[in-house]
Amino acid sequence: MTRDIKTALAESLEPANWDFLQPHAKRDALIIVAPSLDIVEVGSAIAHDQTEAVQKWIEQGQLQKPSADQLSLWNAQPTKAFNTLIVQPYVLVQEIDSVT
Predict the structure, then answer these.
(1) What is the domain count for the chain?
(2) How far apart are the first and last CA of the chain?
(3) Nearest partner of 65 among 38, 96, 27, judged by Cα
(4) Which domain of life is it from (predicted)?
(5) Measuring CA to CA, which residue among 58, 57, 43, 56 is closest to residue 88?
(6) Is 94 exposed, middle or buried, given 0-12, 13-18 or 19+ CB atoms closer than 10 A?
(7) Is pLDDT at 19 greater than 90 in this prediction?
């Protein structure tokens, strides 16, 4: 019996610090998911090859690769926290707002 992909993805959603994510950034595998999107829904759409939905999010700027400025900022903050979801070959990330 196979588990539903969405359930499996939801169970594999984990927080990670930037220092853990740097190697994935170096191999150009990070995809930033806008806070307005459900990262599990996005992961499920990618896993199911739902190209229309994914393309729409890209066009709306809700899915994107990190910019050079973002990478520089995060490199200066190795403990910056993200929610992460691995959908091979990508690592989906959403910033976790730090409470000050």
Answers:
(1) 1
(2) 45
(3) 27
(4) Bacteria
(5) 43
(6) buried
(7) yes
What is the spatial distance between Cα 57 and Cα 49, in angstroms, rounded to a whole number? 14
Residue 74 included in any domain = yes
What tokens were used for 2? 């196979």
Could you tell me the sign of the dihedral formed by the alpha carbons of 41, 45, 51, 52, in that order? Answer: negative
Count of CB atoms situated within 10 Å of the CB of 73:
13
Mean pLDDT over 53-71 rounds to 97
Give the residue from 86, 81, 83 showing the smallest Cα distance to 99.
Answer: 81
Range of the domain at 21: 5-95
Per-residue model confidence (pLDDT) at position 97: 78
Inside any domain, residue 100? no
